[in-house]
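Researcher: Sequence of TnsA endonuclease N-terminal domain-containing protein follows. Predict its structure.
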Amino acid sequence: MMSLFNTIEHENAQYALPRMRAASKITFGDIHGVLPFSGTRNPISVSNTSYKAAFLYKTAANSWKPRLGLVESGAELAVAEEILLNPDLYDLEFQPEVVRYRHPDGSDRTHYPDLRQTFHNGFRRLIFVRNASSLRKPSTKAEIQAIIAATPPSMAHAFTVIDADSYSRPRRENLRRMHRLVAFQPDAKADELVEDLILSHGRYWLMSELFPNADLPKWRIFQSCLRLIATGKLMANMNAVISHHSHIWRPSA
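Model: Prediction complete. Tokens:
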């Protein structure tokens, strides 16, 4: 009688997970109306362990035309979106250069800085985004110092190391919405009206208290508040997702 089950001999059984081919990079073709990614390395690939993202951004260096940005972590994306809200920023680059350096273990290696910000006055800064556990390791500190020492002065005037863990999930979400609204959904009329309302009527405790006093739909007031917070004209707790019920206050309060 034929068995309903296939028998696998002990010698042929595979107990380990099969080896899979390394995931290839995800490439982006031409996007109508969007400038291509300008970095020296594409950091985007299929991964089930890390967050990678592609997004659009605008800078004065690109004549305010949207450009494709690629990042290899959620914290890196949040740092980039926060930088893009700075009115003094001229340009922001992702994976802008390759640095060849001598690792503390004696081996020759290459490194691609996460970000480089350039201000209108020409000052340039390279940014390293690392999680807190990594930054506590002496080996990480030594490697960063080796990279900085090997970076030519023409590449940057300064270096900043940012703790990725300081960007909580609510803060990242707030920055994502603020960057989108400031860069791609401006509304100067609503912003002026809401700012004047806040200045002329004293302190408001909750954002929802603005709604009955402004001749605008609630959604426009809410978006305006996010833009005003993004530009420093209004304050809120960035480590809680900002909503209609959020406490808001003026910077001078």
